[in-house]
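Can anyone check this?
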Amino acid sequence: MRAAEQDSGTVLVDDGTVLVDDGTVLVDDEAKAAVEAAEGIIEEASGSDDGTFGEAAWADDRVAHLLERLTSDFVLDNTYREQHLSLTASENYPSRLVRMLGSGLQGGFYEFAPPYQAEAGEWAFPDSGANASLVGKLTGIGRQLFEAATFDWRPNGGSVAEQAVLLGTCGRGDGFVHFAHKDGGHFALESLAAAAGVNTYHLPMVDRTLLIDVDRLATLCAEHPEIKLVILDQSFKLRWQPLAQIRAALPEGVFLAYDASHDGALIAGGALPQPTLLGADAVHGNTHKTIAGPQKAYIAFRDAEHPKLKAVSDWVCPQMQSNSHAELIAPMYVALSEIALYGHDYARQILANAKALAHGLHEEGVRVSGESFGFTETHQVHVVTGSAADALRLSLGDLAHAGIRTTNIEVPGANGLHGLRLGVQAMTRRGLREAEMREVARLVAKVVLRRAEPTAVRAEVADLLQHHTLDQLAYSFDAYVDSPAAARLLGEVFR
């Protein structure tokens, strides 16, 4: 097999070992085996007895070279995923069926139907009826999981969803309230609000508890009657906020939105309360964090007749995006179905794992935020390390080299100090439980506190993960991929 040089500086050499330009070995003989298996498929096809895939069909070396280059990229990435502890709070492993179903022909065609009754117009297309059926399945399960009257599947990401909520509820001269960045607020709203002439205010917080100060919020809204939206868009999230008290404190007509991007599966699985039942006008979020779906999002309204439903929905599509990627309707449905069937146990295991990781880190001597309330009530654990440079060095340097994937943040309530935002949802999908999470805590502490050699820790990480493969994820339909029903389904997807 010839070497395939990568544009990134990564090289797949003849023995199958993948090297980066600093000489670090990333992949061993498993890479060679995977690439050779791919080559074997091509060779087997080219030798077909019926002549359909004869030598002439594979004679273009340019195509063969292109496929080899692509294969080596997937070998590199798959091996990386297999051998790393994924402790980012914002990612997850989608199951094989979720990944496969994204290959349907629907991706080549438009789907514009909004979540309200609309007259046919220039955005209406003749169709087979399959999209309408798929949308019906998806919206039905979405409404069920989030106790909502509508479910708009069309946003292509969480940012689109929350920006549509902002633009659909506020006009020039109005105001909105959300979390400041230091308190975990999302990045996607303030610059848009400024461009739209919408005033920005920040939720008042109690640093010790990391909870919203409801009385001060009520005062803020009374002093600024132009406020039309309060959106709980926290990305660095350790606690459940007092949503019912917040609703009661807001003036009539103020739209209350809850961003469930991070804790969507915890809500749908019953481990956290339902925002719509506590007074939120809408719940929205993406589907690739605690929900292990594709990179999509949703907006669900409590009331199908809400006066802001049409405005918010129209900002999603066609005003902010024209293609909602209909090939992802079925993967979203399967991901939500996994939550519907297994979400109760999955959500509670996430909470147990987060507690185990936090307490394990604390016992190792690592400074963990939130000791006064038991460190965490979600999938996240926040570690305080010091300066922004220190946190960046750890997340992209020592921890990354040790096979531990995470990100750095300004830790809420830590007086400007930075650190690490850890999440347990992905490793919960790989089957890790409390005992393994305490081992994860030990490995993180070895790097963060004891400055252990990253390559030595990397070997321990690989040993921990060897029995937690990516092809049989927990709380998923992976066990059914080879069933006759799945074979019939996939046969149509790839037809």
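Reply from J.R.: I decoded it. The mean pLDDT is 90.
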